[in-house]
Amino acid sequence: MDPKVRDLFARFLDTHPEAERTQFEGWVAAHVEHEEALRGFMTELEMLRDMLDLSQESIAAHLLESHGIDLDHSVSLDLRQPPTDHTPGTGAGTIDLTPHLPAREGSSRRYRVRRELARGGMGTILEVWDQDLRRRVAMKVTRQGAAGLRVADSRALARFLEEAQITGQLDHPGVVPVHELGVDASGEVFFTMRLVRGNDLETVLREMDSGERDWSLTRVLGVVLRVCEAVAFAHSKGVIHRDLKPSNVMVGRFGEVYVMDWGLAKVLGRPDVTAICDPEASGSLARVESLRGDLEDDESSDSPVFTQFGEVVGTPAYMPPEQARGDLDQLGPPADVYSVGAILYRILAGKRPYDNGRRQSAGEVMIAVASGPPEPLARSSRPAPAELCAICDKAMSRAVADRYANMQEMAEDLRRYLEGRVVQAYGHGPILELRKWIERNRVLASVAIVSVVAILGISLRSALVQAASNRELRQTQLQLTSLLADDLVGRDPAAALAVALRMPRGEDDFPVRTAILGAMQRLQEQRF
């Protein structure tokens, strides 16, 4: 694929969002040198459009007709509603959250496909043009029967619907809003959501490592803090993500941060009708393998792992040990805490956890995760602040009880670091608090230190002046005492000697005795 032709066709779509055939013919006439390649792009675009011609059928009716069962596709995160038991096929406890789709025929169909954005194990994401609201949106469509998938359609659809409804109910700035859930003319289920323009966090980290763009550690940590806040909100709704990694975090062009791909998410307390492992294989890695083929060309530690039924387990390099061991019933909010800690490890070390410098399969990394911790950050060739290492180590603790109790605690420790306050995972105490206060308030601390030094200087000067005054006073006292002793010895030496002998020896600091004895010695020297 010639990048120049691809960019040329993209410019055509930017200029003509509806991409009508008459508009295209005029564009081709202006670029005849690329006519064949451009027509190939247009043919593929029209084929995708035909696949997404919408029907009038509701999702509930479509699933009932195509599968013969009433799937429990009604996920509700409203904690005020009590949970309801649901028996497939009875319709009990079902709440149809999806409205009937309006009739769309011929040229009046709402969505027009522009291009494919991404492809994964359970669906394809397309960029489409919403003709009603005149905007570009992202559309995720199911990929039933795709090469390599060996999972019943009902289970795949149930998970796809759960992803759409969970994502749609997580009303947080860090989660991409879902616009619509529907069925296309070919019977494939889809949902539309905001089209995020930007890069995923993995791309951002590569740019930071290479120095290509102005990405500092502080700026990247701000992204991680936003991730913590979004996931903490999901946890408050009883939802765990189970596949947090840099490639599932999008950073928009204007600083937006989104946690993407909730396809592996689980609602706590709700029966996992789309269990991500065969129950007979729980606790064992024997039946876990990587999905190969056209879906995953690069089987690496950052590639998702699938069960023998083609169902996603997670991404080995970022999954907690309990998930790697297959102890899926133990997964809760601490599992997401570990994964965010692994993202922080990638930031600080410049490589994914368990990256030993050689090519590893996802299965090899998964076994390593289950066996022991990754290489300590202290041994990394890239120096990292001790406080951040402490946060990372706590979040990635092998024992669930040793990790942060919840995502909000980890977010608070990251916020403390960014604000120059004491990180709880690193230490505490008055001396550390004082040092952090000085670091946060350098100007005020400098003024305080100067003031203290000035006060000490004034006190020292006063003490020196007082000492000098005392020395002068003592000298005067000694001189007067010497004169009095000379006068006394000169008039009556015997009386002067009697006075000197009566003076206690312990009071030699009072110089009368010394002065009299000195005067008598001088008198004797004068006589001889």
Textual characterization of the structure:
- The chain is an alpha+beta fold and 528 residues long.
- It has 16 helices and 13 strands.
- Strands 1-2-3-5-4 form a five-stranded antiparallel β-sheet. The protein has a three-stranded antiparallel β-sheet with strand order 6-8-9. It has a three-stranded antiparallel β-sheet with strand order 11-12-13, with no helix packed on it.
- A hairpin with a 4-residue loop joins strand 8 (249-252) and strand 9 (257-259).
- Helix 7 (217-236) runs antiparallel to helix 12, helix 9 runs antiparallel to helix 11 and helix 14 (442-491) crosses helix 16 (512-527).
- It starts with a helix and ends with a helix.
- Mean pLDDT is 75; it is low at 82-108, 145-152, 274-299 and 307-312.
What does the overall shape look like?
elongated
Say how many strands there are. Answer: 13
Radius of gyration: 40 Å
**Tell me about the biggest sheet?**
5 strands, antiparallel
Question: How far apart are the termini?
Answer: 127 Å
In sequence order, what are the helices and strands, one letter per element? Answer: HHHHEEEHEEEHHEEEEEEEHHHHHHHHH
Record keyword descriptors for this entry.
16 helices, alpha+beta, three-stranded antiparallel β-sheet, single chain, 528 residues, five-stranded antiparallel β-sheet
Structure summarized in a few sentences:
Helices cover 45% and strands 11% of the residues. The chain is α+β, with helices and mostly antiparallel strands and 528 residues long.
Task: Indicate the topology.
Blueprint (H helix, E strand, L loop, with lengths): L2 H13 L5 H9 L5 H17 L7 H9 L43 E9 L3 E8 L4 E8 L10 H17 L8 E6 L5 E6 L3 E3 H10 L6 H20 L2 E2 L8 E4 L4 E3 L6 E2 L20 E3 L14 E3 L4 E3 L6 H4 L8 H17 L12 H10 L14 H10 L11 H12 L11 H11 L1 H50 L1 H10 L9 H16 L1
Antiparallel strand pairs: 1-2, 2-3, 3-5, 4-5, 6-8, 7-10, 8-9, 11-12, 12-13
